[in-house]
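Batch manifest, entry 17 of 40.
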Amino acid sequence: MAATLQRRTGAVTSAIPQSKTLNAETVTSIATGFLKRIGHKGGLKPKRVSLEEGIYTVEVEMKKLTALVRVDAETHEIKEYEIQPKGEETPFISISPKIIIVIFGVAAAVYVALHFVFKMFGL
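Output type: C-alpha cells
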C-alpha cells in the first residue's frame, strides 16, 4: 500500500471570498476585526461607512479615540488606517463636582476662622 500526500500551496486569504462584493456590514466587520487584532479590544462603536472611488471608509469610535479604516472594495485589503483622539468640544469653563466641593470647603473654613477671630476681638 502506497500512501500519497497531497500538498496545498497558496496564499492565505481572508474569510470573505474575493469574488463576493462588499457591503457596509462586511466592511464594518473587517475594520472592527482589524482594530481588535491590533489591540483595541473593547468599546468599538462603528459610526459610519462610506464608499468613494472604490475605497470603503469606516469610522469607528472607541472610548477616547476615533479610528478611520480604509478598505479596498475589489481586493478587500485594508489600505490604510488612522487612529486619533476624539475631537470633542470642551466647555469654556469646566466646573466639576469635585471643584465645587473643594471651593465650598475652603469657603466654610475661612468663614469659621473669621467668625472665631472676630469673636476674640469682640467685633
